[in-house]
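Continuing from the previous page...

OK, I double-checked the sequence for Zinc transport system substrate-binding protein against my notes and this is the correct one:
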Amino acid sequence: MFDLKRMIIIFMFFAVPSLSAAVEKPIVTVSILPQKHFVEKIAGDLLEVHVMVAPGASPATYEPDPSQILQLARSQVYFSIGVPFEKAWLPQLARTYPGLQVVATDEGLEKRPIAGHHHHHDGHGHGKKHKHDAGFPDPHVWLSPELVLHQIHVIHGVLKEKFPAFAKDFDEGYGAFVQEVRDTDREIRSILAGRDGGSFFVFHPSWGYFAHDYGLEQIPVEVGGREPTPGELARMIRMARDKNASVVFIQPQFSDRAARIIAESVQAKVVTLDPLAENWRENLLKAARAMEEYVR
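Thanks. Re-ran it with the corrected sequence; updated structure tokens here:
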């Protein structure tokens, strides 16, 4: 990996005018778009929220660009969530910006191992090489309402401590969002009533916590963080036939080639679900309705 401090110095030389602009709102930074949604639900428009992983990019392989790294000089808090790129970058960024408060919103959660092989299913057990292998902790904790309640509790507490002038506003936003998360959970349970024990195929195993919460089984197509070999693909097709699969879910950040081969082989639908969509409630309800329609 290159010299981060040298890159910042070079970039600052060419970007000084952009840094001279007055910043009216305090800035916080998050890793992925759903976290931006969480912060804005609590803080409203009182803060400026920067996101590291650009839309359409994968947090498994993302590398921040120079302008993003430079912008961190203006950020007061970084809310991490445990996605893979953080492991490589956050230690460097923390050394470069010692005044930046890095807060792990996933700390204290008991994470499940991610399903990295099609013999590892995702229907049971959680509590509070593209970087994902069987046994690697599943980072997709923002797709479980239960686990989101923990994350927004952490965010709320840090924001109140860091920006006490806005404490009352943060309390109001947090209270309203907690209720929204609980309402979302109840609505999903209503949508998926009667689907308990159903299974669905998905290329990348993003929906393990969601599957656990609502009594479903996620069956990933990718094997150990890579596309399946022809032999593995043939076994997946046989499994899809045995389970009368009616859908294979894909997401924009990954190739859909293997998923489409399986779907065409068993006359299943290919449906896109984006686990990184910004509007958290709308996205989870969209996923629930898709599973209501296709999961057996």
